[in-house]
Specification:
Blueprint (H helix, E strand, L loop, with lengths): L6 H11 L3 H10 L4 H19 L6 E9 L4 E9 L2 H4 L2 H17 L11 H14 L5 H19 L14 H12 L4 E9 L3
Antiparallel strand pairs: 1-2, 2-3
Helix pairs in contact: 1-2, 1-3, 2-3, 3-8, 6-7
Length: about 200
């Protein structure tokens, strides 16, 4: 026996996730009205949708700036999307502004872990290994990999917990935005300036 899904339930789920009305309704029907399970389904679909869009060319977008702390910290960022329609959208511009705020607050060095130079990774790996000398080799490997993950979360923007929603990474926030806009979105580059630094 299936549960009757009301328009209010669909609208509430849409407000929570930003997914399309029909996607919300299908997820609620599939889960017999269980909102938490429906959110999980929509998040999985959003991630799959983002993966499909990753190869699409993102040549539109915006360059935005953010000045914080009375002019002591500033950020310039370029975020690309596929069409100028999305680039002019207020939600997209607010998303870019939130990324700028995040960069001003957290100070990442690179956009992604792929951009971290191999020499820097090797140096961090050596430091981590030196800190756990005397432990069994299998434990050392796990500890070193764990320390490297923490390192990436400090230097790589996409790996960092998002300032406004700390339980999600910046990459997850971008994936959700891709699902909402239906377009590939990429943080191309950023520069953070700090007075006296």
């Amino acid at each position: 026996m299936s549960t009757t899904i009301t328009a209010t339930q669909v609208n509430d789920l849409r407000a929570q996730t930003g997914a399309g009305l029909m996607d919300c309704k299908r997820a609620l029907v599939e889960t017999n009205g269980n909102v938490e399970e429906a959110i999980t389904i929509l998040r999985k679909k959003g991630a799959a949708s983002a993966a499909k869009k990753a190869d699409r060319l993102a040549k539109e977008g915006v360059v935005d700036s953010y000045i914080h702390l009375g002019g002591k910290v500033g950020v310039l960022i370029e975020v690309n999307c596929e069409t100028d329609f999305v680039a002019r959208n207020e939600d997209f511009r607010n998303f870019v502004k939130d990324l700028s705020l995040h960069i001003a607050a957290v100070n990442p060095t690179y956009v992604s872990r792929d951009q971290v130079p191999e020499e820097e990774i090797a140096k961090e790996r050596d430091i981590a290994a030196a800190q756990v000398q005397g432990k069994p080799p299998a434990a050392v490997q796990k500890i070193v990999e764990g320390k490297l993950e923490k390192y990436f979360a400090t230097v790589a923007l996409l790996d960092q917990p998002f300032v406004k929603v700390p339980e999600k990474s910046v990459k997850e926030i971008i994936t959700e935005t891709i699902a909402k806009t239906g377009e590939n979105i990429q943080v191309r580059r950023f520069v953070r300036y700090q007075l006296g630094a």
